[in-house]
Design brief:
- This protein is of the alpha+beta class.
- The protein has 2 domains: 136 residues, Beta Barrel (Upper collar protein gp10 (connector protein) fold); 126 residues, no CATH class.
- 45% of the residues lie in helices and 10% in strands.
- A 4-stranded antiparallel sheet has the order 4-3-2-5, with helices on one face. A two-stranded antiparallel sheet has the order 1-8.
- The longest helix has 26 residues.
- The chain is rod-shaped and about 100 Å long.
């Protein structure tokens, strides 16, 4: 069902409400951008060849980004599914723990599948026996977790919101080009403003009104340059946020064209941030692959979703062609 359409319109801009509009604009932008990144994060990592299992990988990513250690394993029917999340963080497969030597069991899992679908027992697949036994693995968002993804986004969103606030304020200021100087409640000034606004070719004033003294012009010629600089600062800050999350960004900021070497100059930092998420997932996935002879690979780049979708569609069509061949 579509949301109800509301005719917001543009409210009359009273002087005492201008400051409130700027603050509201900033806060609304911060809320929108923060919410958008919360929607983006679970969709940035996908799993090549993951469709050979019955795992809902998007649900896994939502759990991982939410701070849960996801459990993937075998069900009573033999299918590989997302079983739930662990309640005990201490595990032999946790890279941050060096003294733990016992794999997790069913007692350490908060299940999200029906009891009838569960195996009689669960044991974590580990390198203790070269992944020869066990029927479930633990997937972690990060190997070492000293920062929170949401806090990273929140930090940069606050900075971006201030830049957007400045841009919006400049737009408001650019609309003000003429100032009429007068006493509070001066009807002469009000009449002049109304007459000029309504297109009157001349205005009657008394002898106390001096145009040179009571009319001041605001020079807004610097506004376009300031808007350009703020736009560049906005993009630079957004790039910093995206690089922290492992998204591909330009390595340099230039007004002129950027060559290939410059564009990829920040790739090492971006890749390092991306590996924070990829290698922690791969640590559990490679054990699952070895135990069940799979080839699931987590992918993290700008085109991962569209690339993987096209890849799976192509594989599906190729399989159909093979099956249709006599």
């Amino acid at each position: 069902m579509f949301p109800e359409f509301k005719d917001y319109g543009l409210e009359q801009e009273l002087s005492e409400k201008v400051a409130q509009r700027v603050i509201y604009h900033r806060n609304r932008f911060a809320k929108l951008l923060y919410g958008r990144y919360m929607e983006i994060l679970p969709s940035t990592i996908v799993y090549k060849n993951g469709n050979v299992t019955a795992v809902d990988w998007l649900k896994v990513e939502v759990a991982l980004r939410g701070g849960y250690n996801a459990v993937i394993g075998e069900t009573r029917s033999g299918a590989i599914r997302f079983l739930g999340f662990v309640t005990n963080p201490l595990s032999v497969t946790d890279p941050a723990n060096f003294l733990i030597s016992q794999p997790l069991t069913e007692n350490d899992i908060q299940f999200c599948i029906r009891e009838s679908d569960r195996c009689d027992f669960y044991k974590e697949i580990s390198d203790i026996d070269d992944c020869q036994t066990g029927n479930m693995v633990v997937i972690r968002n990060k190997s070492l977790n000293y920062t929170n993804d949401y806090e990273i986004v929140q930090h940069y969103v606050s900075e971006l919101a201030e830049i957007v606030c400045s841009r919006f304020s400049l737009k408001m200021q650019a609309k003000i080009t003429t100032f009429f100087v007068g006493e509070s409640g001066d009807e002469t000034v009000n009449q002049i403003a109304n007459s000029l606004y309504n297109g009157s070719p001349y205005v009657k004033v008394d002898g106390f009104f001096d145009p040179d003294e009571h009319i001041q012009q605001f020079d807004s010629s610097s506004v376009p340059q300031l808007m350009t600089e703020l736009k560049r600062e906005y993009q630079n800050t957004l790039n910093e946020l995206n690089a922290m999350l492992g998204f591909s960004v330009l390595g340099v900021d230039k007004e002129s064209g950027v060559n290939g070497a410059e564009a990829s100059s920040g790739k090492a930092y971006t890749t390092a941030n991306g590996n924070v998420y990829l290698k922690s997932r791969l640590n559990g996935i490679k054990k699952l692959n070895k135990r069940y002879n799979l080839n699931i690979i987590p992918m993290f780049d700008d085109n991962a979703i569209s690339t993987l979708s096209l890849m799976e569609d192509k594989e599906g069509k190729d399989n159909e062609s093979i099956s249709d061949t006599p």
